[in-house]
Write a structure and sequence with these properties.
The structure is a single chain. By secondary structure, the protein is mainly α. It contains ten helices and no strands. The protein has two domains: 85 residues, Rna Polymerase Sigma Factor, Chain: A (Orthogonal Bundle); 87 residues, Arc Repressor Mutant, subunit A. The termini are far apart. 25% of the residues are buried. The mean pLDDT is 81.
Length: 186
């Protein structure tokens, strides 16, 4: 195991609740950033972060310490986010409603907040496995090898899912004339 994490994990397994509180405090920001990839709603994100740390606590005895604790937590984040996506229904905001919020009349590109809303809306229209693979590759910067490790898929499957997901997201954008609205196609 690695440094302070190893000490806190050992103390936690021996019953010291303050040791786990230190782990949570140390990694709460990183976990929250990962969970925001699965939802733009701060309340849902907070619930997902809590779920990650509850599952991590319940599974702490199974952490082998072969890699950094954050890597182990990342795998839990992926599973929690994937489950959240499977449970959530797309009754929130439609892609058309997201696009109505963006000012396409100006010559400049959408601001970062608008761009994030559009990207999240597009991802929301994909099946969960497609959303997961694109989120891990493009938003978290994972390699196909890392995605395979986190999901339990093989690398060929990761590559195939990513290719198909990119095609689906392009088709959704084209159906909604998004590329034209953004001025990327004249």
């Amino acid at each position: 195991m690695f440094g302070q994490d190893a000490s806190d994990i050992r103390q936690c397994l021996d019953g010291d609740q303050e040791a786990y509180a230190r782990l949570v405090e140390r990694y709460q920001g990183a976990v929250a950033r990962r969970m925001m990839r699965f939802t733009r709603d701060p309340n849902h994100c907070e619930e997902l972060v809590q779920t990650v740390f509850v599952r991590a606590y319940c599974s702490l005895a199974h952490y082998r310490g072969k890699g950094p604790f954050l890597h182990w937590l990342s795998a839990i984040c992926t599973r929690v986010g994937y489950s959240f996506g499977n449970e959530r229904r797309q009754g929130e905001v439609t892609l058309a409603e997201h696009l109505d919020r963006v000012d396409f009349t100006s010559d400049c590109s959408p601001n970062p907040t608008e761009a994030a809303e559009i990207a999240h809306a597009l991802l929301g229209h994909l099946p969960q496995s497609d959303r997961l693979v694109l989120t891990l590759i493009y938003l978290e910067g994972c390699s196909t090898k890392e995605v395979a490790q986190r999901t339990g898929w093989n690398r060929a499957m990761v590559k195939m899912r990513a290719l198909r997901a990119r095609r689906k997201i392009k088709a959704i954008a084209e159906e909604n004339n998004l590329l034209e609205k953004l001025g990327w196609i004249r």
